[in-house]
Design a protein that fits this description.
206 residues; alpha/beta; Rossmann fold; 7-stranded mixed beta sheet; 37% helix
């Protein structure tokens, strides 16, 4: 079960409905991936470890999100957005991707799980409608590009955040950027896949 695998790493309270929905994800993705290839077959075998748990590794850094509008930039097949939307049912999630077939899968899975807090949007994030306080993303673009994409999408009020799941050596990518924090994941998730993985966080206070 997905919930049994991820439980040692979550360290947050979860309800039975969230557990039920996370446990349903592997079968749903296997079914849809047979029709529309959004995850490689090799990765599909490691869906829980490399996709669901990876998405949920953002939880300690997101904190409370009630009342917020959150965008998942380049969601692909729905990661990290779908697992996070399950964890935050009171938060509005807009999952954006420029590839229509991927958004079709995201929409279908959200409907199957009755995730009424999820909007699947076939678009570029620059055209996502704005008003976002928090943005999340995984392996989509260099961090400065992500910042540029969000420039017109932030809400007007203070307290904006961008959290990106990244891997590898980030020195050059983050060189010269201010207000950046890098949170390595290896200490929290002692699995080989996470040895070079990190959450890169930008906070904007104005």
């Amino acid at each position: 079960m997905v919930s049994d695998f991820i439980a040692p790493y979550l360290r947050i309270p979860v309800n039975d409905l969230a557990v039920q929905r996370w446990n349903a994800l592997p079968a749903l993705y296997e079914e849809w991936n047979a029709q529309i290839n959004v995850i490689s077959r090799k990765d599909l075998e490691f869906l829980t470890e490399r996709h669901i748990l990876h998405s949920l590794s953002l939880l300690p850094y997101l904190g409370p999100l009630t009342g917020q509008r959150v965008v998942d930039i380049g969601t692909g097949g729905g990661f990290p957005g779908i697992p996070l939307a399950i964890a935050y049912p009171e938060t509005e999630w807009v999952l954006v991707d420029s590839i229509g077939k991927k958004i079709k899968v995201v929409q279908a899975i959200a409907e199957e799980l009755e995730l009424k807090n999820v909007t699947a949007l076939h678009s570029r994030v620059e055209n996502a409608g704005g008003g976002f306080q928090t943005a999340v993303t995984r392996a989509v673009a260099p961090f400065p590009v992500l910042m540029a994409w969000m420039r017109s999408q932030w809400r007007a009020a203070p307290g904006k955040r961008l959290l990106a799941l990244k891997g590898g050596d980030l020195k050059e990518e983050l060189k010269g950027l201010k207000g950046i924090q890098v949170h390595p994941l290896a200490h929290a998730i002692p699995l080989p896949f996470y040895e070079t993985k990190a959450v890169v966080e930008l906070r904007i206070f104005k």
